[in-house]
């Protein structure tokens, strides 16, 4: 599948602040998914997606590892605790904070052509 946008383009689109270091800003993002229940993420996200969430705990990074998530965007300007940022750095998963709410970010990304990477689990 062809990439829809890069991490740098994603950051620009959501007016984000990169919280992690040494990130490949040319890394490709192919789709998006928004959720706060990590069980929902594990049950239905497709690989190479950006995860939009209001959670800031280390579990979001652990979930990203298991689900092959490309990047995590924290909504509503949330800033992850040091432990979460350190784990994201260790696992080379870009962690981004955006001032927008989840609904706004989903709309912006979808309008830019990023498809939903939520699988049907019914």
Protein model, in words:
The chain has 122 residues and is an alpha/beta fold. The chain has 5 helices and 7 strands. It has helices spanning 7-13, 38-44, 59-67, 82-91, 102-111; strands at 5-6, 17-18, 28-29, 31-34, 49-53, 71-74, 95-97. The chain has a 5-stranded mixed β-sheet with strand order 2-7-6-5-4, with helices on both faces. Helix 4 (82-91) links the parallel strand 6 and strand 7. Helix 3 (59-67) packs parallel to helix 4.
In short:
The chain is of the alpha/beta class and 122 residues long.
Oligomer: single chain
Describe the sheet with the most strands. Answer: 5 strands, mixed
What structural category do the secondary elements indicate? alpha/beta
Report the span from N to C terminus.
24 Å
Poorly predicted regions are: none
What is the count of DSSP helices, taking H or I runs of 4+ residues? 5
Query: Topology as H/E string?
Result: EHEEEHEHEHEH
Strand order of the largest sheet: 2-7-6-5-4
Give the percentage of residues in beta strands.
Answer: 15-25%
Average pLDDT across residues? 92
The proportion of residues forming helix, as a percent range, comes to 25-40%
Global outline: globular
- Rg over alpha carbons: 13 Å
DSSP summary, beta strand count? 7
């Amino acid at each position: 599948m062809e990439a829809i946008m890069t991490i740098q383009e994603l950051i620009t689109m959501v007016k984000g602040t990169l919280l992690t270091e040494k990130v490949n800003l040319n890394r490709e993002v192919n789709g998006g998914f928004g959720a706060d229940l990590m069980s929902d993420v594990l049950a239905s996200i497709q690989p190479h997606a950006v995860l939009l969430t209001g959670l800031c705990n280390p579990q979001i990074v652990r979930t990203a590892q298991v689900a092959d998530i490309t990047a995590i965007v924290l909504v509503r300007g949330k800033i992850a605790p040091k432990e979460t940022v350190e784990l994201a750095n260790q696992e080379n998963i870009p962690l981004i904070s955006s001032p927008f709410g989840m609904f706004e970010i989903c709309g912006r990304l979808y309008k830019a052509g990023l498809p939903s990477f939520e699988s049907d689990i019914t």
